[in-house]
Amino acid sequence: MAKDLSMREENYSKWYNDIVQKAGLAENSAVRGCMVIKPYGYAIWEKMQAALDKMFKDTGHSNAYFPIFIPKSFFSKEAAHVEGFAKECAVVTHYRLKNAPDGSGVVVDEDAKLDEELIIRPTSETIIWDTYRGWVQSYRDLPILINQWANVVRWEMRTRMFLRTAEFLWQEGHTAHATEKEAMEEAERMLGVYSDFAQSFMAIPVLKGTKSANERFAGAIETFCIEALMQDGKALQAGTSHFLGQNFAKAFDVKFTSSEGKLEYVWATSWGVSTRLIGALIMAHSDNHGLVLPPKLAPIQVVIVPIYKNDEQRQLVVAKANAIKDILVKSNVSVKVDDRDAYKPGWKFNEYEVKGVPLRIAIGQRDVENGTLELARRDTLTKGVYQEDAIAETVAKLLDEIQENLYKKALDFREAHTTKADTWQEFNDLLDNKGGFILAHWDGTAETEEKIKEETKATIRCIPLENNLETGVCIYTGKPSSQRVVFARAY
Amino acid sequence: MAKDLSMREENYSKWYNDIVQKAGLAENSAVRGCMVIKPYGYAIWEKMQAALDKMFKDTGHSNAYFPIFIPKSFFSKEAAHVEGFAKECAVVTHYRLKNAPDGSGVVVDEDAKLDEELIIRPTSETIIWDTYRGWVQSYRDLPILINQWANVVRWEMRTRMFLRTAEFLWQEGHTAHATEKEAMEEAERMLGVYSDFAQSFMAIPVLKGTKSANERFAGAIETFCIEALMQDGKALQAGTSHFLGQNFAKAFDVKFTSSEGKLEYVWATSWGVSTRLIGALIMAHSDNHGLVLPPKLAPIQVVIVPIYKNDEQRQLVVAKANAIKDILVKSNVSVKVDDRDAYKPGWKFNEYEVKGVPLRIAIGQRDVENGTLELARRDTLTKGVYQEDAIAETVAKLLDEIQENLYKKALDFREAHTTKADTWQEFNDLLDNKGGFILAHWDGTAETEEKIKEETKATIRCIPLENNLETGVCIYTGKPSSQRVVFARAY
What we know:
Oligomer: homodimer
Structural class of chain A: alpha+beta
Strand content of chain A: 25-35%
Number of domains of chain A: 3
Shape of chain A: globular
CATH class of the largest domain in chain A: Alpha Beta
CATH architecture of the largest domain in chain A: 2-Layer Sandwich
């Protein structure tokens, strides 16, 4: 167990915060609810961005950038959207400061009041659809397939690093289509991209499904989501993709002439994932020794620690470490040699364990003499001695194994924590004693969902996309139901 | 000349705006002073980011992310900084909206007033140095070499797309060092990175120099800059690197224990370039046919236009176009095949000319039969017929030639527009009739600089780093001077 790290089993919440801090991922800032993403945490985000950005481009999307400010009146244009987003937000009212008359600093210049307040974007549908109006005349101008990497602000009252912060980083895709079918296919395609990313890169299995009306995005006709399970048995929504119908086109008057010459409203989707994914990554894999990272998202995949007793040994061993690094870098592995003299090997071992580096290579004089290397896996905490001359192949194989193993462990955990409940009693027992995803019948009404949430804090995470139809009775009301839905307490 | 494009010689300002619009780079948004960066414009920014980000990482820097909000009081902590930055800025005063009592929409909730107003960052020295205080105890914690890619807001009254907008995108490096020497070296190193980037990627020659006290960054001891010359003879500051001394460390109480065990203030630098560079790129190379892009920053380096008269030809020619594309993509050239049937070749030729695509390949049936291709260069507007079987080599060679030619043209222009002035009369004649960089003696005082600016709108762009010392007399006051400085009217 790493020094000063809380035990996951004892205080999950503190364990999470400890990892964020000790692994150097982020810290709270002087601004309430806003975090500083430190270089190591940001490097994980860069890896995520690179993989996602390639997937977006491979599916035909381009990046663009829209203003951070949204005129207040824009929010009132889409009835559902205003309820969901215009409330807890940062409002810019003035555009100038001036010296305080008493010399005490600067104060707001009341002469510089904006005619209309500007809202810092909590999401960009409104400003983007206001722009799309000028881009679309004919069906030839469609589809528009655009993504934006940006910061957004939602004035959350209870914040938690990565999981819920006032400002966060994300990407938001906003697409415009000539037909309902095409827009719906796009929303489903991007859900597929998110699901592939979560599973292939983050090594986290996810459920794909739709949200109930209560949990739907404000302004959407249908919200698709991927839901992941954390090690404390709570669910985490890892990404959403919305079919927006013609709601925003109607609100912002975006029409096009169809190939049949008819004037029609444009169909829309939007979809996003955020720095919250880093929170999911931490909670899905880490242990009492610290962060555990899947190799595909690890800023450092292999750390090499030279071990020596004197200057002569140091020279020999560090030279070997750098030679090994060169070999690995050639096969596109990201490698760090830590030859700092001020820290002992044991201290370094602990450091990179806490930081979740997937593979550690230790090299001592005897290894150099024998042509061997000691490799330690972060996921299993096991060590092995390997031949130096096949190191590139060995590392490639082990990194693949670690990636697969993390996914399998997470999948096993999810399967062990996915349970059917047929009665209200069972449902409550499961929530309190086991957690995880609970498959239960629900009568399909918003009222029942709301009552279940009030009484148990559990929500419907999703209605799985490929759900088996099965008749049953609602666990809460006893009314008839045609399928089970997925309940859980969630982040 | 491209359709609907103003002539550069007749109305430079309109010509610039036309290119921004017709090439699909950006447009004004519904928010005063904020632009929408459209996909083609953003793709240029992505190319710039990729190149710069690699240069920053190769010089040891990591990326991180700091809050967009800065508490108002932070600005008052550094005396010079508050004068320069705290004035024209976006001020967040409230964190909630509510439904208007009369049902007319949403209004600011006066109950949700912030205790202390938050400023949208115009630059991040203050919030970052407030954070660094917690990161630095000993000399072992130094240097800190961090860069941030972010949006910033400065409430400019007169805005112009890319060149001056209320919100813009940039990167800001913020480094912390144990010694003055190390910080000064860092500031100079990053100026070198900017200069290399401008010359190698943007194909724009730049002058490296220091700013006069009047033009220095608010809070800096020394501001280094690169200055470029636009085709209308006006200068454009393309990047700055600041040696901040211990000013911010003192303002935010950031101290460290030196290797000698003494408690000392940390030394700082900051440096940045922004989306303004896209404005420079447009103005440095473009012509009356539209945008001209250096190949290293062109989102599309080669466009292939198939030419055919019937379906049979179309099939043959498009297949060949795609085969050529595959060959070029393998040598890392970014290629687009435009096989849209709805547009004629001539229309497409014009389209890619306006968009500044460096090379255009046209393929007709006869080309396929002869094993030839027609290549047209955007920079010289010349065409040539080349053998298809050596196309990868030909394209690589031509792209290199275009990159070099653009640089050479820009350098020739700058040299032809760099002139010495020895009298006030000469100085004014040059400004009004020729423009460009004017090398003139100045008495070294802020008052004289200010008066010259008031009377002529020319400012001191920089004091060149490797300046020849030369005795002379100030063109304005006649007082003695030891070196010429660079004057120009500027963006």
